[in-house]
Amino acid sequence: MENQTYPAPGSSEEVAAFHKLQERVGDLHRALVNDPRTPQTVVIVPSLSMDPRELAKISGVYHYEERMLVNLMLLRQPRTKLIYVTSQRLDPVVVDYYLALLPGVPRSHAKPRLVMLDCDDRSNRPLSQKILERPRLLRRIINEIGNIDRAHMVCFNSSTLERSLSVRLGIPLNSVDPDLSDLGTKSGCRETFREAEVLLPYGFERLETPEQIAMALAQIKHRDPDARRSVVKLNEGFSGEGNAIFKYHDLDGTLDVDVLAAQILVMLPTGLAYEAATENWESFSTKYLEMQGVVEAFVEGEIKESPSAQCRVNALGEAQVISTHDQVLGGPSGQVFLGCTFPAREAYRLPVQRAGAKVAQVLAKKGVMGRFAIDFVSVKEGNKWNHFAIEVNLRKGGTTHPFLTLKFLTAGNYNHTDGLFYAPSGKLKYYYASDTIFEEHYKGLRPADLVDIAVYHGLHFHGPTERGVVFHLIGALSEFGKLGLVAIGDNPQQARFLYEQTLQVLDEETGPNWHEGKS
Q1: Is 321 helix (H, G, I), strand (E, B) or coil?
Q2: Peptide bond between residue 106 and the one before it cis (omega within 30 degrees of 0)
Q3: What is the sign of the dihedral through the CA atoms of 364, 367, 372 and 374?
C-alpha cells in the first residue's frame, strides 16, 4: 500500500486543509437541489465522539451507531452511493430491514450502491478514532469513494476526530466545524440563548470548582428564597445523564450569600441527586473540573411540558426550523430523554418554532452547519405559556431519526404555517417514538425474530396507508433487551395506539406462554 503523509491531528495544517475541503459543500448542495439524480457518494460515520465516561452510562451505547441507518433511505436517489462504517459488523437482517423500506426503489437497484464496512472493534472508543487507527480500512473507504469531488461525510456529532477523518479521506464534512463545538455545550448554549434574546432559566455557566458550584447555588437561592431546587449540569452530558439536582431543603435564602455558599459547599458531596444511577460526587466533580458546567434554577410549574425545535442550517448558511416535538422524559427528576411525539402541542408549537428560529439564526451567523435540536421547558401560567430554552443538541440527537424516518418514508413536508406534516396525499402524519424501550424478557430476541414477530402481527410500516411501525436499535435487542421504534399514524391517538400495541405484542411474544398456538 502506498505511503501517505497527513497533517498532524489538530495542527494548523490540518485545520487549513479541513477548511479548504469545506468549500466544496456548497457546490454539492446546489448540484443536488438542482438535480437529485446527481451522482454522489455519502460516507456515513455514526461515531458518538463524546466523553466515554458519559456514554458508558447508556446501556448498549455502541448500538446507537445504528440510529443513522435511516440514512439508507438516501438510496432512493438513483445515483447516490452510501458507505456506512460501524464499529462491528451489523446483522444483515438489520440492513435488509431498512432496504425493504425504500419507497419506489427495487432492492436489487439499491443494494449494490451500499457498502457496509466495520472495524471489528466493540471497545468504547469513538468509531472515528477506530477508523483513523486502521490505515487499510481508510484506504478501502477511499477506494470505494472514487470521485472525491462528488463525496461528503456525515456523522452523529462533529469533533476533532471527524475533522481528522475528513482530511484523511479528502472529503468535506457536512456538519458543524469542530472549532464551534463549544456552542453545543451547556455553557455555550446559555450564551447563545442570551444573544438570541430568548427566555432561559436564571443561572451561571463556565463553572469548574465545587466552590463555584456552591456560590451559584447560593445566588439562585438568595435571589429567590422560595426556590426548592436547582440543576447542576456537566457541559458535555448526554441525554440528561450528566445532570444532578440539588435540593435546598430548609436552607435560609435570606442569609448572606457567602454564608449560604459555605453551607452548600459542605452539603455538595452528599446533597446531589444524579440522573445517572452510576454517578457519584468524586466522579462528577472530577469531570466538572475537566469539562466545566452550569448551574441553573430548576424550572417549576404545575403544568409543564418539554418541547423541542429541530433545526437545520444548510450548506449555504440558510437556517430553518424543520419540526417541533414534545419530549418524553424520565429519570429521577424527569430530565432523561426517553422519546418524543410529533408535533408539539398545538397550544405552543408555533411559539416554540419561532424561538427555535431565533436561536438557529444566531448559530448560522456563527458558522454552524447541519442538523441540531433546541430543547425547552414550557410552563403554563394562567393562559400563557413561557418557554425556557435549556439546551442545544449540536448533533443528530434522539429527535433526528424519527423525523427523517417520517420524511423519507412518506416524501411529505413540514408546514411552517401550522407546524404540521403533510404527506403528498394531503394526509396529516403524526408519530410517537422512543429510543429506550427495555425489558429483561426481550433479551435473546435476534433481529430475525423481531422481523418475524412484526410481520406475523402486521406491525411493519405499510407504504400504501403510510402508517405502521419502524424499528431501530435492533442490534441492542438480544444482548441488552433494548429497542427503539417510531410509530406513524394519521393522528396522535393512532400513533400512540400503534406504539402501545407493539409493546403489548412484544410482551406476549417474549412471555412464558409465547409458544402457545404456534405451529
Answers
A1: strand
A2: no
A3: negative
Q: List strand residue ranges (DSSP E) for 224-280, in order.
A: 229-234, 243-247, 272-274
Q: In whole angstroms, what is the distance from residue 382 CA to residue 146 CA?
A: 61
Per-residue b/e over 392-401, b at no fewer than 16 CB within 10 Å?
A: bbbbbbbbbb
- Amino acid (1-letter code) at residue 62: Y
CA 311 to chain centre: 12
Give CA–CA dist 320/473, Å, rounded: 28
Show the cell assigned to 148. 472525491
Cα Rg, the chain, nearest whole Å: 23
Contacts of 117 by beta carbon, 8 Å cutoff, 6+ apart:
83, 84, 85, 86, 137, 140, 141, 144
Can you tell me which residue has the cell 462533529? Answer: 158
pLDDT tens for each residue of the chain, 519 residues long: 445 688 999 999 999 999 999 999 888 888 888 888 889 999 999 998 877 776 676 777 778 899 899 999 999 999 999 999 999 999 999 999 999 999 888 989 999 999 999 999 988 889 999 999 999 999 999 999 999 999 999 998 889 999 999 999 999 999 989 999 999 999 999 999 999 999 999 999 999 999 999 999 999 999 999 999 999 999 987 666 789 999 999 999 999 999 999 999 999 999 999 988 889 999 999 999 999 999 999 999 999 999 999 999 998 899 999 999 998 877 666 666 678 999 999 999 999 999 999 999 999 999 999 889 999 999 999 999 999 999 998 887 777 889 999 999 999 999 999 999 999 999 999 999 998 899 999 999 999 999 999 999 998 898 888 999 999 999 999 999 999 999 999 999 999 999 999 999 999 999 776 655 454
> How far apart, in whole angstroms, are the C-alpha atoms of residue 467 and residue 492?
12
Sequence-distant (≥ 6) Cβ neighbours of residue 70 within 8 angstroms: 98, 401, 404, 405, 408, 472
Distance between start and end Cα atoms, the chain: 55
Distance, in Å, from the CA atom of 156 to the CA atom of 167, rounded to the nearest integer, reads 17
User: Which of helix, strand or coil describes residue 158?
Assistant: coil
CA distance 129 to 124: 10
Write the Ramachandran bin of 107: left for phi over 0, alpha for psi from -120 to 50, otherwise beta: alpha
